[in-house]
Design a protein that fits this description.
- It is a single chain.
- By secondary structure, the protein is an alpha/beta fold.
- It has a domain of about 200 residues: NAD(P)-binding Rossmann-like Domain (Rossmann fold).
- Helix content is about 40%, strand content about 15%.
- It starts with 8 loop residues before the first strand and ends in a 5-residue tail after the last helix.
Length: about 325
């Protein structure tokens, strides 16, 4: 951390091209005495990102030499580590790739930090999924609750947490774990519930899709937080969180997925028929996940500010704008 009047700090966001990475870059853009850099997986992903092109580097985190070069060149004071495979459903089809990308990518980054910028603070993003299934009478999950992940993605993130803890203990790595529960908002990929629902509604409104929304199981309950609140939490943790600690990033209340879908449908400009069924892509799933974020709130003073309804509407309006852009004829 830096006192007033000290030098400009250098910040690296891995996974800049992702949903959270772009919102985080926007959140950090106006900060004083800070220069923000980003890494992306491939050069072609450089388009339409919220950083100047000369601050964006293509770097595969599985390429250890490339990661070492990146860290040595930027000499970051802060790293927000968002890169990796974040598709829980897809992790059932590619468990090995998910674990390799998330665990080995993090290991390469940690080792590069110890060589090129050993005093750097690293915020590693994990998931509330590491807790696994909640018991029927269990309260909201706290950071000291047992972890027992039930899907390959969450297993990979539990391994990342242990890796960061080991390097904190053995090498003094200034690592902080953000154990984030479900986050939603404008720009989320259709691979995730709200992004998929928003895209479908926008396409139905534009008359390019039949007026039917087919989804899997809607009875599960999840703890949803708007992505803009999530990145504010990350920023606060980087500034005031304690190295070696785990922090839940969560709203503290669970909402049934069916309720989220119905809220999105209430914003539709046309009638849509909902068809729900079982999600066969996930052999195991947790009926409910609720995170207790009291530690985050007390340590850094964070509070969520965006309602779930506002978040859903913003996601839908973003999807509508993308559909309009896609359908608009080119000029010139």
């Amino acid at each position: 951390m830096f006192a007033t009047g000290e030098r400009t700090r250098r910040v690296l966001i891995t996974g800049l091209e992702g949903f959270v990475g772009q919102h985080l870059a926007t959140e950090l853009a106006g900060a004083e005495k800070q220069k923000v850099f980003g890494s992306i997986r491939r050069p072609e992903l450089r388009v339409d990102l919220p950083l100047p092109s000369d601050r964006i580097s293509a770097c595969d985190l599985l390429d250890r030499a490339a990661v070492e070069e990146l860290v040595e060149r930027i000499k970051p004071d802060f790293i927000y580590h968002l890169a990796g495979k974040a598709d829980l459903g897809g992790s059932w089809q590619e468990p090995g790739e998910t674990i390799r990308a998330n665990l080995m990518g993090t290991l390469n980054l940690i080792q590069a930090v110890l060589i090129g910028s050993p005093k750097c603070r690293v915020l590693a993003v994990s998931t509330g999924g590491v807790y696994g299934r909640m018991l029927g009478d269990q309260d909201a999950l706290k950071e000291d609750s047992c972890i027992a992940p039930v899907d390959p993605y969450s297993v990979s993130k539990a391994a990342v947490e242990l890796l960061c803890w080991q390097y904190f203990e053995s090498h003094g790595l200034q690592a902080i774990i953000a154990r984030s529960f479900n986050h939603i908002g404008p720009g989320q990929s259709p691979r995730f519930l709200v992004g998929r629902v928003a895209k479908c509604i926008a396409e139905i409104e534009a008359n390019v899709r039949a007026p039917v929304l087919a989804l899997g199981n809607l009875s599960s309950r999840r703890d949803f937080t708007d992505v803009r609140d999530v990145v504010r939490a990350y920023r606060a943790l980087m500034d005031r969180g304690r190295a070696g600690e785990v922090y839940n990033v969560a709203s503290g209340r669970a909402v049934e997925i069916g309720q989220v879908v119905q809220s999105a449908l209430s914003f539709s400009e046309v009638p849509i028929r909902l068809e729900a069924g079982d999600d066969r892509a996930r052999p195991l799933d947790s009926p409910v996940l609720i995170g207790d974020s009291s530690k985050l709130r007390s340590h850094v003073g964070w509070e969520p500010t965006v309602s779930i309804e506002e978040s859903i509407l913003d996601a839908l309006n973003y999807a509508r704008s993308r559909v309009r852009d896609f359908r608009s004829p080119s000029v010139g």
